[in-house]
């Protein structure tokens, strides 16, 4: 499988991790999930992210998930390798690259407080990972680390194996504009920018120069459709598709409950056998399920109205 590069475009969906009701990994659903995402047109998969419940897994489980997905997938796979220390990060990174990963993703530690600390961390990551291409995950809402555009520019200039930004500021549209302005002026390399936050700002992000999405949603075809239509210049159709799915995407963005809603719909769609999160994790109440079912019904109606 080819390595991740600065030219990456499209949708690299953040994959869930399927569990059985007893908390064990559901390997049959892992295979079915990979096939489902590919059938919906994603360009790549990203596994072992926060919404993949990676912090709840052992090191051996993480390696087993990576091995299973990489062996099954026909598209590039990016693996989250964020760890408290560089040694553990390097160990998992080396393992997944040896079995065919396209690259890895790294978020900063919560102890990062200053611009110089953010730069120093990613400079160290670049050195530790050697030739392995990596994604800089910029997700202040979860990490509590804000990385200014000027710092990202500095990292891009000095750390050649940083090939992608997972832009997940809230919404941070100005950050995308600033980064693209720097590369257009020749001040930095132009790296790939794929966006997160469940796709809530995807049309606007594409308009600012993003190359696609790296996030999760129970209907990945929404993100694929938006990115495809925007890339072809059919901006209004991209917005039509986005608008039809927006209420459900918004519901999924609830902290804690959102992943439970995503897994509920994926189970309803037959992608995974159980909607269970590994403990500790949220579960939907009957009222929550009623909310989701109403949103699904209205979404189906709207999609029919626009012929999508």
UniProtKB/TrEMBL annotation:
UniProt xrefs under SUPFAM superfamilies: Aldolase
Membrane-spanning parts: none
SMART domains, per the entry: DHDPS
Molecular-function GO terms, alphabetical: 4-hydroxy-tetrahydrodipicolinate synthase activity
Chloroplast among keywords: no
Protein transport recorded as keyword: no
Binding site for pyruvate: 214
Key words of the record: Lyase
CDD domains in UniProt: DHDPS-like
Cellular component terms per the entry's GO annotation: cytosol
Pfam families: DHDPS
Entry's family note: Belongs to the DapA family.
Protein name: Dihydrodipicolinate synthase family protein
Organism: Devosia marina
Lineage start: Bacteria, Pseudomonadati, Pseudomonadota, Alphaproteobacteria, Hyphomicrobiales
């Amino acid at each position: 499988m080819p390595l991740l590069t600065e030219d990456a475009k499209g949708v690299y969906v953040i994959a869930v991790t399927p569990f059985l009701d007893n908390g064990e990994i559901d390997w049959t659903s892992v295979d079915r999930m990979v096939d489902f995402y590919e059938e919906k047109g994603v360009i790549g998969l990203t596994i072992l992210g926060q919404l993949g419940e990676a912090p709840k897994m052992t090191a051996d489980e993480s390696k087993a998930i990576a091995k299973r997905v990489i062996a099954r997938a026909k598209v590039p796979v990016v693996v989250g390798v964020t760890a408290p220390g560089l040694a553990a990060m390097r160990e998992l990174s080396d393992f997944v690259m040896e079995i065919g990963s396209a690259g890895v993703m790294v978020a900063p530690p919560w102890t990062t407080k200053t611009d110089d600390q953010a730069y120093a961390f990613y400079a160290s990551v670049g050195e530790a990972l050697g030739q392995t291409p990596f994604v800089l995950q910029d997700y202040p809402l979860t990490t509590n680390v804000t990385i200014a555009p000027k710092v990202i520019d500095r990292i891009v200039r000095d750390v050649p194996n940083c090939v992608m930004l997972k832009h997940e500021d809230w919404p941070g549209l100005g950050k995308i504009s600033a980064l693209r302005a720097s590369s257009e002026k020749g001040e930095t390399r132009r790296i790939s920018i794929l966006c997160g936050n469940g796709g809530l700002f995807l049309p606007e992000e594409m308009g600012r120069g993003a190359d696609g999405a790296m996030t999760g949603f129970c209907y990945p075809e929404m993100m694929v459709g938006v990115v495809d239509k925007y890339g072809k210049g059919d901006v209004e159709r991209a917005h039509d598709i986005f608008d039809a799915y927006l209420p459900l995407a918004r519901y999924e963005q609830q902290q804690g409950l959102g992943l439970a809603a995503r897994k509920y719909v994926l189970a309803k769609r037959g992608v995974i056998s159980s909607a269970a999160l590994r403990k500790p994790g949220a579960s939907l109440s009957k009222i929550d399920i009623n909310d989701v079912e109403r949103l699904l019904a209205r979404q189906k109606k709207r999609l029919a109205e626009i012929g999508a």
